[in-house]
């Protein structure tokens, strides 16, 4: 029987590409989506659940596994714009529920599911954590908390043979509210002048799967953009404004 992977937020964008990549390599892939009508890649096991619903949603995702999973990718995320000027505890709470509490619950359930051999949790962070700015305030706070969860769960679960790592990509795909022209201008805005692609995340995931002694680490995929210490989110900057 092939290995079983769980990928949250796998109906679209980078989550779907990760699911397609693992399916092509012979994994059984449980693809979480939020809405009942969301599609998943052909051959994947589909489970719809709103991760904001907490423990019940996590249990539904884990129950869809045909065998104890050996890989969990916490990819699903809430991404909504806010700032100090319009900050609200409600918006922060909504981000924390999906971006932190759900990964924590899924990681705990993944650990409890048992299984043999190398087991791996990968949390999808954001490269901006390496050089933070206050744009998308609640989102950024929640990703910082997920980074802390990566370290803490790696410490807590190592004795059980479970590794926990993270991948932190920079801008890969057009964001909601971003123009195509702005994306084109900012996608490669880094020292290497190379835009980060979803395929880069898939390659990083493969590396983590194939590195059985690596735990508690974050792979930052940003073309070196963090070295520029940008004062704002890249989509709000002109390419010559560093």
UniProtKB/TrEMBL annotation:
<dbReference type="InterPro" id="IPR002347">
    <property type="entry name" value="SDR_fam"/>
</dbReference>
<keyword id="KW-0560">Oxidoreductase</keyword>
<protein>
    <submittedName>
        <fullName>NAD(P)-dependent dehydrogenase (Short-subunit alcohol dehydrogenase family)</fullName>
    </submittedName>
</protein>
<comment type="similarity">
    <text>Belongs to the short-chain dehydrogenases/reductases (SDR) family.</text>
</comment>
<dbReference type="InterPro" id="IPR036291">
    <property type="entry name" value="NAD(P)-bd_dom_sf"/>
</dbReference>
<dbReference type="GO" id="GO:0016491">
    <property type="term" value="F:oxidoreductase activity"/>
</dbReference>
<dbReference type="Pfam" id="PF13561">
    <property type="entry name" value="adh_short_C2"/>
</dbReference>
